[in-house]
Specification:
The chain is mainly alpha-helical and 298 residues long. It is built from twelve helices and three strands, in the order H-H-H-E-E-H-H-H-E-H-H-H-H-H-H. It has a three-stranded antiparallel beta sheet with strand order 1-2-3.
Length: 298
């Protein structure tokens, strides 16, 4: 009996040590300051730039998918024991964060996932937004400055012990994507807009396709989502390789596969439906160039 008690005590102490280590390491990484040395684009406030920014924020970058249709913040994802992704109010209204940020700070938050003090933002899709061109990120900032103010308090995301453990184990990169991108000497080669595979590759990155479907677009489980979430589709020729361009356009405009079945609502069809014809054709052209991959190999 004494041996069993000692073994149980040892196990409890070991769990406490591991838990303490996970908490300490995750806290350090989530509060480590990051220096950013990047271009500071000129923010143009003409109507064309603002309209472009609105289109990018809704149809491409899909800021509204997390921050809400009014950009006033919301609970974006409840991942149960992992935590809650709560997007803040990014308007100039009471409780919003916009008024406290300069244009340069807002650009760094979008492209580098850092706050003004250099600490990383949580659950910011920085690996996608890091490649936004100067023109596009400037247009998004111009639009946000003119968006209707929403009076709603901002709340911080909740990270539970399992979330911290997964983060330390490298299984929850979305927790702090600022660790995964360069912050110095960045060169962005943004292709001209048009129905080309090159421009489609740009849209697939900054539009978040690679965030859910993986860098290789092979789909599978989306990191950071509960097991109950349906896996992302394999977009390579091994998955939807037989789809025609019209099949693809219908899927992103109406949320239906060629067989008529409905795509899971986690796919933001209400926003991809607002993409232009050329943008959808560019994405399709890019998918034609992607090598086939086994589903779930990211």
């Amino acid at each position: 009996m004494r041996f069993i008690r000692r073994a149980l005590l040892g196990a409890v102490l070991l769990v406490a040590l591991v838990a303490g280590g996970v908490f300490a390491l995750s806290s350090y990484r989530m509060s480590r300051r990051i220096a950013v040395h990047d271009s500071e684009p000129v923010i143009r406030t003409d109507s064309a730039s603002i309209a472009r920014g609105r289109h990018l924020a809704i149809a491409i970058a899909k800021c509204v998918d997390c921050h809400g249709a009014d950009l006033g913040g919301q609970l974006a994802v409840d991942a149960g024991p992992i935590g809650q992704l709560i997007a803040p109010n990014i308007t100039s209204g009471a409780g919003g964060v916009l008024s406290a940020l300069s244009d340069a700070e807002l650009v760094r938050a979008i492209r580098h996932g850092v706050r003004p003090d250099g600490t990383p933002l949580r659950f910011m899709p920085t690996t996608s937004f890091n490649l936004l061109s100067d023109e596009d990120v400037a247009a998004i900032v111009a639009y946000l400055r003119t968006a209707p103010p929403v009076d709603r308090p901002s709340r911080g995301s909740v990270v539970r012990p399992l979330g911290r453990l997964l983060y330390v184990a490298g299984q929850l990169p979305l927790m702090n994507e600022s660790e995964l991108v360069p912050h110095d000497g960045i060169t962005r080669r943004t292709p001209p807009a048009g129905a080309t595979a090159e421009y489609g590759a740009y849209l697939a990155t900054v539009g978040g396709c690679t965030g859910c479907h993986g860098p290789g677009l092979s789909g599978g489980h989306v990191p950071g989502t509960p097991p109950s979430f349906k896996p992302a589709a394999n977009l390579t020729p091994s998955g939807i390789g037989q789809w025609s361009e019209q099949d693809f356009v219908t899927a992103l405009r109406e949320g239906k596969r060629p067989d008529g079945s409905v795509i899971d609502p986690f796919m933001p069809v209400k926003y991809t439906a607002q993409m232009t014809d050329d943008e959808l054709r560019a994405l399709y052209a890019h998918l034609r160039t992607v090598p086939p991959r086994e589903t779930g190999t990211r």
